[in-house]
Specification:
3-stranded mixed β-sheet; alpha/beta; 3 helices; 30% strand; globular
Length: 235
C-alpha cells in the first residue's frame, strides 16, 4: 500500500531532455534545483533524460565491483547504492520532491518509487517485483526445467538532503546490456541474477512509449504533474 501522504504536495513539474546529457552537468543542475526547492524558490521536478555510456558508484560502492574501470568514464555519486551503468536506451528519471510536504518518510518514498516502476512495467504486461535484500525492480525469467533466473529491469538510487530528494530511478528500455558486464551491477554477482530491458523481454517499446507509461504511473502514485522545461546548463 502506497502512503497517501506522498500525493500531498500539488503538481510536480515534468521535464524531458532530448539527446544525451553529460552526467556531471546533470548532477550540477540537479544540485542547484534541489537547493532552490529547499529554499522555496523552485517547484518540485521529475527530470527524464539519457546519459552517454558511463558507470556511477554510489555511497556503498566497492572497488572490486568495478570490473572494467577503463571501459567508460566512472563517476562517484552521492546517491545510495553501489555501481550501476547509464547509457543510451536507458531512461533515467531524476526525482526532486519535497518530502517535507510528502510525509517525511524515506522508507515510504522508496516504496513509492518501487510502486511507480512496477506500475509502469504493468502497462506493458510485465510483472515487476520487489526482492527482499535487493534494490530495484525484478522480473522472474525462470523457465520450466531450468535453474531459477531473475533479471533486474529497473534500478533505484536516491539521496535525501534536508527532506528534498534527488537522483532517482533508471528503467532499461533498450540499452546495450553488454555494457553492464564492466561492473557487478549493484553488487550482484550471483549466476542466477542478471539485467534485462523491455526490448530484451521481447517488447517493441520506444522511449516515448516508456515516457508516457512512466508519467501515468507516477501520477497514480505521487499525484499530478505539469509540463516544464528541462534543466539547462546554468553556468
Amino acid at each position: 500500500m502506497v502512503s497517501a501522504a506522498l500525493r500531498g504536495a500539488g503538481p510536480a513539474e515534468w521535464a524531458v531532455s532530448p539527446g544525451l546529457t553529460e552526467y556531471d552537468a546533470a548532477v550540477a543542475a540537479m544540485e542547484r534545483r534541489v537547493a532552490a526547492i529547499h529554499a522555496g524558490e523552485a517547484k518540485e521536478l521529475v527530470w527524464l533524460l539519457e546519459h552517454p555510456p558511463l558507470y556511477t558508484g554510489g555511497t556503498s560502492a566497492k572497488e572490486t565491483d568495478l570490473l572494467a574501470p577503463a571501459r567508460f568514464p566512472v563517476f562517484k555519486s552521492a546517491r545510495g547504492g553501489q555501481y550501476t551503468y547509464h547509457g543510451p536506451g536507458q531512461r533515467v528519471a531524476y526525482v526532486m520532491l519535497d518530502l517535507n510536504r510528502r510525509g517525511r518518510d524515506v522508507r515510504a518514498f522508496v516504496h513509492g518509487l518501487e510502486e511507480w516502476l512496477i506500475a509502469t512495467l504493468a502497462e506493458f504486461g510485465v510483472k515487476g517485483e520487489r526482492r527482499e535484500g535487493r534494490v530495484g525492480v525484478w522480473v522472474d525469467r525462470t523457465r520450466a526445467g531450468a535453474p531459477p533466473r531473475e533479471d533486474k529491469v529497473a534500478a533505484i538510487g536516491v539521496r535525501v538532503r534536508r527532506w528534498v530528494s534527488f537522483h532517482g530511478v533508471a528503467l532499461n528500455v533498450e540499452p546495450d546490456l553488454a555494457h553492464f558486464a564492466g561492473i557487478a551491477p549493484c553488487g550482484i554477482s550471483d549466476p542466477g541474477l542478471g539485467v534485462t530491458s523491455l526490448v530484451d523481454l521481447g517488447l517493441p517499446v520506444t522511449m516515448d512509449d516508456a515516457d508516457a507509461a512512466l508519467r501515468m504511473a507516477f501520477e497514480a502514485v505521487f499525484g499530478p504533474t505539469r509540463n516544464a522545461a528541462a534543466l539547462p546548463d546554468e553556468d
